[in-house]
Structure prediction request, 582 residues.
Amino acid sequence: MAVIEATDLGKTFRVRRRAGRLRRRVEDVVAVTDLTFGIERGEMVGYIGPNGAGKSTTIKMLTGILVPAHGEVRVNGLDPSRRRTEVARNVGVVFGQRTQLWWDLPLVDSFDLLRRVYKVGDGAYRESLDELVELLDLAALLEVPVRQLSLGQRMRGDIAAALLHDPAILYLDEPTIGLDVVSKARVREFLSKRNAERGTTVLLTTHDLDDIEHLCKRVMIIDHGRLLFDGGLVEVIERLGEERTLVVDLAVEAPPLSVPGARLVSLDGTRQRLAFKRSETSAATVIAAVAAAAEIVELTIEEPDIESAIRRLYESGL
Amino acid sequence: MLDTYRILASARMRSDLQYRVSFVLFTLSQFTVTILDFVAILILFGAVPALAHWSLREVTFLYGLANLSFGIADLLVSPIETVQQHIQTGTFDRLLLRPASPIVQVIADQFSLRRLGKVAEGALVFGIGCRVAGIHWTTARIALTALSVVTGSVIFSGLWVLTSCVCFWWVEGREAQNALTYGGGFLAQYPLGIYGAWLRRLLAYAVPIAFVNYFPAVYVLDRHDRLGLPAWASFAAPGVALVVVIAAAMAWRVGIRHYRSTGS
Prediction:
């Protein structure tokens, strides 16, 4: 049975804009429209799309913060906006850009407060806390006031806070934003472990394709409030991540390079950019061809930027 | 619900205690600022023998009842006005994600014992008023006086919640709200008779501040200037309080469903 179900879900905001000196014009802005999907227990789904695509609006409707303009949501069979508190008992949410911890209090005090707000029993709390402290490596941070934690530490604290009441569903909104490589890896490792061991259903929004690659088998892509794609990760990588770019700095200025299977994107002094498709050629082949033609000083490979890839996807109509 | 209030309010107090000196100074200043209102009344009575036929002793009782009720509401419920900041900065989302009443969470999050300064001032003047106003204490008068403190606090509290709901539609509605809550609290310090007819009607029927202290005081002080209302007006405060609470609860429910959250 699907734990999260959305049917023809939509949200429209009424916005007042200035029109002339005093007059305001009222406009309806569609944030999300005709969204239909189901997420099964234990699934880990990546939810991606450009800024303003409707990701947060969707999550806010799934949690009951926003009342849908049309359509239906069911979380564990309940309508979140009407039975918000009941739904909340089974849901944990992490907003990467905002903390739910008490700024001036030691981390452990925030945990204790949340335990009491969620009415978690003593035994269950101890067990939950011990496990989270160990897996997220929080032991040394428990007595530190939250305002003194680094971003990565705070994020781990926030993730623990969202899971203290052992929710069956976890929504993560940009959980790795601003984190260094080590912290990112740690968060990802924890999430996949939690999912595997407890069967926690996870819906993850992110701008970081790496997050998705590490965690999700299924991806939903949204843009302009519409669901463009809902399917396997493999397929997405093939479609979205197909074109990569080789950036080379040459020792001396050279005429435009011509490499089979790659096309020149730009030429700026000694720097040239070549785009190539994963399916047609490999990075090694392209680099070898360039090296044969000119002396390379420096090179980097740019992976496709998710936003522009999604735009392309949107324009081409998947 | 009370449990959540207690838990979150004690967390706020622990945070506040990191700044002890400011805590003491603020409490004292609250007491001082509020008592200046009463000093103004004393000065006024230096010039006139009575206000709308109310003596200084009677006004002391009236004032004390108003400020004690207002102080209790201010201490326990007034932080609801910070819902405006929560909405503006986006932290209101956070509160809606927890399985607890958002009203309780908003209030408890900004609970501060500093506001005891106001309660102390109200209690002090009220105590003096009870002694000096020349009241013939009967069981009914004692009961009505005690009950009025409760119903008065409830009416002010309800008004605070009700006016805070404005920001679900109009985020900068704070000033309009202050006019009703603080303004109402101030108007209640004087006998209703000094106001013009339209303001009297406003305070009796629209923003029912008159039921906080004026109508109960008329009975307790054995006066008869009910301004055209029947005798039962002195005992109507519980009903009025109930109406205000229901109106506030309904406005809050509608407001929450109307809430639009902020970007991402």
User: Anything to note?
Assistant: The interface with chain B takes residues 13, 51-52, 55-56, 60, 63-67, 81, 84-86, 88-89, 91, 93, 95, 97-98, 100, 102-105, 109, 113-114, 116-119, 173 of chain A (CB under 8 Å). The longest strand of chain A covers residues 2-18. Residues 152 and 183 of chain A are 6 Å apart (CA to CA).
